[in-house]
Write the C-alpha cells for this entry.
Amino acid sequence: MSKIIAAAAIRGAHKIVQKAEKKLAETVAQKGRDCPVEFPNTGYYLPIIYSMTGIPVKTLGDCFKILEMAKGMLPPVPEERHWLPYLGHALDAGMATLFAEEVLEGCKYLIGPHPVEGIWLGAADDVIMRERGIEFVDGTAPGFAAIVGAAPDADTAVKIARELQQKNLYVFMSANTHGVSFAEQLTSKGVQLGWKTRLVPFGKDITATVYSLGFANRAALAFGAVKPGDFRRNLLYNKNRIFAFVMALGEVDDEKYANAAGAINYGFPTIADTDIPEILPTGVCTYEHVVSQIPHDRIVDKAIEVRGLKISIHKIDIPVPYGPAFEGERIRKEDMYVELGGPGAPGFEFVVMKDTHEITDGKITMVGPDLEEFKEGTAIPAGIYIEVAGRKMQKDFEPILERQIHRFIGEAQGIFHMGQRDQIRHRISKEGFKAGLRLRHVGTIIHAKFHEEYGAIVDKVQVTIYTNKAEVEKRLGEVHRAFAERDERILGMNDESVNLFYSCTLCQSFAPTHLCVISPERSGLCGSVSWLDGKASFEINPRGPNQPIEKGKVIDENIGQWEGVNRFLLENSRHKVERVSMYSMIADPMTSCGCFECISVLLPMCNGIMTVHRDFTEMTPCGMKFSTLAGSVGGGLQCPGFSGHSKFFIGSRKFMAADGGMQRLVWMPKELKEEVGHFIEKRAKELGLEDFLNKIADETTATTEEEVLAYMQQVNHPALSMAPLI
Ligand code: SF4
Ligand code: ZN
C-alpha cells in the first residue's frame, strides 16, 4: 500500500474511532450501559464484530470492550514524511474502522439519527440476508459493488447503476460527496431502489458502508459454514466466493480511505474515478488494491476486470436491458403504457405440448395489433399462447414451463409480470415502449429462454400472441379446459400412488447434511420444488440435484418411513442422518437447511403446534422470533419438536399426520392464515372440523403460550381433546 494512502487510512480510522467513542458516550448517557444494542431482526449481532471476533455484542456496555479493541488495533498516525513499512498497518486501521462504525451505527438505532429514514434502508435483516445471500452462493448474483460517494451528475449515476444491474451485481450504496449521494441521484431520475431491483441504499454517512461488508460476513457465516470468530476463513470465503469491489466516486477523504482499507481485508479492491495514489499488484486482493482515475464510461468494465469477475450474459435480441435485476422492478400506473389483461380485458398465458411436426421453432405470430395501435393507459386483451415440442417433453412439464414465464419476461426492463394462467395483469412501461419494446419481443424472450434453460426437454418453441379480443376469448375456452384437467391430475396424486419420491440436494452447498425428500403431498421446504418439479428436473438433468428415491419396503406408513428412503438419506447426508419420518415433527423429523417458508413448533402447554412464516418478524408464542428459530432449526440437523416446511404442506393430508395432523394447529400469524386459509378450510372440511380457521389463534388474539391456551378454551379448539402430544 502506498505510504500516502496508508497515512490517510490511518488518519481516517483515528477519526472514526473517536466519533464512535463520542457517540457511545452520548448513547450511554441517555440509555444506560445495560441498554440492548442491535441491528433489527438478526441473529448475528453486530455482524462484522461477531464474525471477526466471535463476540456477540448485546448491550451498550459490551461496546466499550469493542472500541478498546479497535483502539488497540490503530497504528499511530504516521508523519507524512515517514514510510510505512507494510500494508498490515493500514489493514488493521481498516478493521478498527469497521468495528467502530458498527458500534456507531448501532448507537444510531437507539438515539438517532435513525438509519432507516426516507430512501435509506439501514441494516439488512436476516430474512433479506437469507433470501439474497443465497443468490451469491448459487450464482444468480456474482457479488456486489459498494458505491461510496456520488457521480458527477445524476445521468452518469443512472448509467453506472444500469450497467451494474445488467451484470447481475447488487449495488450497495453509502456515503456522499459534498452532501450528494449516489442513491439520491438515482431517485432524482425516477430509478426504483430496493432489494428487489438490487439497488440498495444503505445510508448517507460513510459509516453505513459497514452494512455492505457486514452483509458479506453474514453470508460467510450462513452459507459458508464459517464459525463466528474464525476471521481468517471468513475473509478467505469473501475473497474467493463473493465478487465485490468498492467503487469510490468523487473526492476520497481520509474516512473513505479508512473504509477502503477495511474492504481490502476482504480482498475487495477499490476502483476510483478521481486521481488517488494507486496500489498495484498485489497481496491481499486477487488483483490490484486500488485503481484510480477511471473514466465513468469504463469504470464498470474496469472494476469487473480488476476483481476478476466472469460474467456470462446471454444476449437476447430486444431493445431493452435484460437480466434478473429487472425482475423486481414494479411499473406504477402512471408509468405504464398499457396493461395486458386486467379489468375488461381477457388475458392468459399458457404452455401446451405439441407434436414436433405441428410447430415451427422460433415462429412468433401476432394475431391482432401490436402495442403502437393501443391507447396509452388502457388495459388490452392479451393471450400468450406457447407451443413446445421435444422428444423428452411430457404433459406434466407444461405447468413447470409455464411457471418460468414470470421470471423470463419479468427480467426485461419495461415489463412487469403479474399473475398467472388466465389471471394475468402484466404492464408495459412507457419508457420501454419508447425504447422500442413490442409484444412480439415477449415471444423473442420466451423462445430464447426456454431453449437456454430447458433445452433438455424442449426442442421447438412457437409463440402466438393474441391481442384481438374475440380471438383471445375463443382461445380461452381451450385454455380453461386444459387448466381444469391439469388440476385434477395433480390433485389426484398422493404419496400412496407413487413408488418414487425425489430428493433435492441443492442446499447442500451451505447445509451439507441436509436433504429434502419430496413427495406428492410434501413439497420441498423452500416451497419451490414440488414432486412434479423434482421429476421434471431429473428428466432435464439426470445428474442434477433431484434424484428419484425408490420408497422400498414400508417401515411405518403412519409416520412415513420407508427403507429405501432411509437408505438414500444415509448415503446422501454424509452418513449423518439415518432416518426420516415424512409425516412427523417429533420422531426423526426431516432436517432443515435454512430456506423453509415456515417453521412449525410444538407448544406443549397447548397440546398443539404453532406455525410461523418467514415474513412474520414479531415475537411468537413459543418465545422465539422467526429469525431465532431459523438459526436454531436450520443447518441440516434433526430437531425433534421443530420442523421447517413449505406453505403448501400446511394444507396437505400429510401435514404432521403422525402427530395428529392439521387439528393440532393452534397458532399462526394472521397474514399466513389469510394466505393459506383456503387450503386449511378445504382440509378442515374433509376432517369434519367446523369453523376451524377461526379457532386458530393469531397475533391479534394471543402472543404468549398462555394466551393461546386461553383462546383455545374460549373457542373450544379440537386439540384440547386430543391425545397428549408428548
Ligand atoms: Fe431443494 Fe429443499 Fe433447498 Fe428447496 S429447500 S432448494 S427443495 S434442498
Ligand atoms: Zn434450503
The pocket of iron/sulfur cluster (ligand 1) is lined by residues 504, 506-507, 516, 524-526, 528-529, 593, 595 (CB under 6 Å).
